[in-house]
Write a sequence for this structure.
């Protein structure tokens, strides 16, 4: 990881109910050169609590990037996307949909609700690792993310 003292760490919110997928994402992004803090929540309700500073997330920092699965318990990712993008402040947070669904309706709905990117999780673990590395290279290293 980069250790530039003049830059604050990027805050990433991972919303993923699969422990194996989350652990792979956490492990691979842990190798990133960009200094970041990754926060993992396992369902949509926790994501909304995190973003709205409720319950155990009262001190949570605003994420610079959200990695969002669609198929989540409690509140699914589609609803999380709608809620975030309807909020006047939260809507500026880039959301990367990272899901097993390759359903064209999910793709269209995600973009219609202003997702910034839609990625179908590969079944092959090596391809999944490659996708996470591409997220790192593009969203963490290349893209200028909004400060607020």
């Amino acid at each position: 990881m980069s250790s530039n003292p003049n830059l604050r760490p990027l805050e990433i919110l991972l919303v993923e109910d699969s422990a194996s997928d989350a652990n792979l994402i956490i492990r691979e992004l842990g190798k990133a050169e960009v200094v970041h803090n990754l926060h993992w929540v396992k369902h949509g309700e926790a994501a909304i609590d995190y973003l709205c500073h409720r319950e155990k997330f009262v001190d949570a920092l605003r994420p610079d990037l959200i990695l969002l699965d669609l198929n989540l318990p409690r509140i699914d990712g589609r609803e999380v996307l709608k809620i975030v993008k309807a909020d006047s402040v939260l809507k500026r947070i880039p959301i990367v949909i990272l899901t097993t669904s390759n359903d064209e309706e999910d793709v269209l709905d995600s973009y219609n609700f202003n997702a910034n990117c839609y990625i179908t999780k590969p079944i092959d673990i090596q391809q999944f690792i490659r996708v996470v590395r591409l997220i790192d290279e593009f969203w963490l290293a290349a893209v200028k993310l909004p400060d607020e």
